[in-house]
């Protein structure tokens, strides 16, 4: 699909400087621009590329004044970075705006869906599923019985949504994600063996949540595992049974949260963090990568280390840890002198 500079400027409420009929059909980095591509300049470090890029159109800030002649058509906007992000979102909507039901697939007669529904080939939709408007479910996906999916939600190829799961509006579930699998519940018996504890709860995902590729969210033993609105989960995260994650919390890849832990609002949790079960993590908490959390965390704390320490305490301790060999030598010398 091709767009002219004039059309793009209309979408972005920008001003064309150059050829309004210049056409683009792809996007590129400014340093890798090719003919027929659209790029942007927001970082002053890349300003030299504006004079040599092969791209056809560039989005720039209104304040940008070329110091040398430019061949490229410019679209001037208030904020080039935000404008380009808006354009990416617009482009993505067009690219992903599929409708219709492909074959082969299984769509239960008792399932209902709204307008502009897309169901990719080799997908399965179970009994009594309720699907909102503009929902896109890509090929090889599984949606179990009694699932509810809100408007404008996308479920990418190969995702598995187990029965009873509730997903809100404007959510994205990426490929390979598994929502609603059994929690890790086993009870030891007198023979030292483990018997499975039935997991009969569900998962509730509220509006505007992103679930990354390969991430797993387990159903509750009883009640619900809850992902509150605005939460963003990276790839390959494990959320155990009965966990609750507060609004607008973001969690990076390979983090694991054990059962029944409650995480507050607006937290930022780095990659490879381990959080033990039955804990309470407050609001606005910052947890650095590879931290191990084994205690309750108050609001506004920043943690690092395993077991976790306050961030400033960790940094102070780490200075001494790095100097430990030197400190040991000095202690040995002092012992010799005292002897």
Automatic annotation (TrEMBL):
Catalytic activity of the protein: a UDP-3-O-[(3R)-3-hydroxyacyl]-alpha-D-glucosamine + a (3R)-hydroxyacyl-[ACP] = a UDP-2-N,3-O-bis[(3R)-3-hydroxyacyl]-alpha-D-glucosamine + holo-[ACP] + H(+)
Described function: Catalyzes the N-acylation of UDP-3-O-acylglucosamine using 3-hydroxyacyl-ACP as the acyl donor. Is involved in the biosynthesis of lipid A, a phosphorylated glycolipid that anchors the lipopolysaccharide to the outer membrane of the cell.
GO MF annotation list: N-acyltransferase activity; UDP-3-O-[(3R)-3-hydroxyacyl]-glucosamine N-acyltransferase activity
Family that this chain belongs to: Belongs to the transferase hexapeptide repeat family. LpxD subfamily.
EC number(s) reported in the record: 2.3.1.191
InterPro entries recorded: Hexapep (IPR001451), LpxD (IPR007691), Trimer_LpxA-like_sf (IPR011004), UDP_GlcNAc_AcTrfase_non-rep (IPR020573)
UniProt name for this protein: UDP-3-O-acylglucosamine N-acyltransferase
Keywords assigned by UniProt, alphabetized: Acyltransferase, Lipid A biosynthesis, Lipid biosynthesis, Lipid metabolism, Repeat, Transferase
Active site, UniProt feature: 241
UniProt GO BP: lipid A biosynthetic process
High-level lineage: Bacteria, Pseudomonadati, Bacteroidota, Flavobacteriia, Flavobacteriales
Domain UDP-3-O-[3-hydroxymyristoyl] glucosamine N-acyltransferase non-repeat region: 22-89
Primary enzyme class: transferase
Organism listed in the record: Flavobacterium terrae
Pathway annotation from the record: Bacterial outer membrane biogenesis; LPS lipid A biosynthesis
Gene name of this polypeptide: lpxD
NCBIfam families: lipid_A_lpxD, PRK00892.1
Gene Ontology CC terms: membrane
Complexes and interactors: Homotrimer.
